[in-house]
Design a protein that fits this description.
Layout (H helix, E strand, L loop, with lengths): L3 E9 L5 E9 L5 E6 L10 H9 L2 E6 L18 H16 L6 E6 L1 H12 L6 E5 L11 H11 L6 E3 L10 H9 L8 E2 H7 L3 H8 L6 E6 L9 H8 L5 E6 L12 H17 L3
Parallel strand pairs: 3-4, 3-5, 5-6, 6-9, 9-10
Antiparallel strand pairs: 1-2, 2-4, 7-8
Helix pairs in contact: 2-3, 3-7, 4-6
């Protein structure tokens, strides 16, 4: 890789929470800025298989650890209200602009991060030039039973932070090394899903369908048909609602949840690079 510039630090987001961020960019003028939002239970440092090729192609990459994740402040693995993650994206993009982020600025979100990204985009399309949604988590891949839901709502009234349901780490990727790395990474949240977190994660289906019709900027949607964490059928459903003239969807046959950590990750990254290159050539 050619010479790159790297820096990291903290910025202050909603309610005074300090969030960790990292920036890696090529020396000299960048083709644009790629802002990425990670999914539940992980952190921004897990994206080098995507960001390294993007930096090689001239894109500056900026990511942050969600509240309660990685090196950011907050109770580990806890989502009090999902809208707080949307506020955090808003604060980070404002911080990126102040820090010299170049246009075009593209927002990428994975899983729950994709949900936060589309909810942010619906109200801030003047702040970004494109949106990439990877394995968006709108419905659980394996349906939640009514009894589980009732029990969770009862517990939420008294112990919302209680860890109750195991996180299906084994379904992240078909690559066993990815699973082993996830389990050994101390910056990941490896305990059970907390009550309120689970309820907030499954609360986004109708809100996202409602805001999807407001999206007019270029969008790329990606999902693996073998995803058993996030129901892949919701991606075509949202795609049809988008009002973007330049929208594209790619469904990868048999791939699991973490597309950039699957054996076929090279194909996925190539598709993202091709889309970004087209966007950069046709701004606006």
């Amino acid at each position: 890789m050619d010479m790159v510039s790297e820096h990291s630090g903290h910025f202050t987001s909603w309610a005074g929470t300090r969030l960790f961020y990292r920036v890696v960019e090529p020396e000299g003028p960048a083709a644009g800025t790629f802002v990425y939002v990670h999914g539940y239970a992980e952190h921004s440092g897990r994206y080098t298989s995507l960001t390294d090729p993007l930096i090689e192609a001239g894109w500056a990459c900026r990511g942050f650890d969600n509240r309660g994740h990685g090196r950011s402040e907050g109770l580990r693995g806890y989502i009090l209200r999902f809208r707080h993650q949307v506020y955090d994206i808003d604060a980070f993009i404002s911080h990126a602009r102040e820090d010299g982020a170049r246009t075009p600025l593209v927002l990428f979100g994975h899983s729950a991060g994709a949900v936060a990204a589309i909810r942010y985009a619906a109200d801030h399309q003047d702040e970004i030039d494109g949106l990439i949604l990877s394995s968006m988590y709108l419905k659980n891949g394996e349906p939640v039973s009514p009894f589980e839901l009732i029990g969770a709502r009862l517990l939420d009234r008294v112990i919302p932070t209680l860890p109750v349901k195991s996180h299906a780490v084994h379904l992240l990727s078909r690559d066993p090394e990815v699973i082993a790395d996830f389990r050994s990474d101390k910056l990941n949240y490896r305990d059970n899903v907390r009550v309120r977190t689970g309820l907030e994660l499954i609360s986004n289906y109708r809100p996202v369908l409602a805001v999807a019709t407001r999206i007019t900027i270029p969008v790329l949607m990606l999902h693996g048909t073998g995803d058993r964490i996030a129901d892949p059928s919701t991606t075509p459903e949202v795609f049809e609602l988008l009002r973007s003239e330049r929208k594209r969807m790619r469904l990868y046959e048999g791939l699991y949840h973490e597309l950039i950590h699957e054996p076929e990750a090279g194909e996925v990254v190539s598709d993202i690079l091709a889309w970004l290159s087209e966007l950069a050539r046709r701004p606006g």
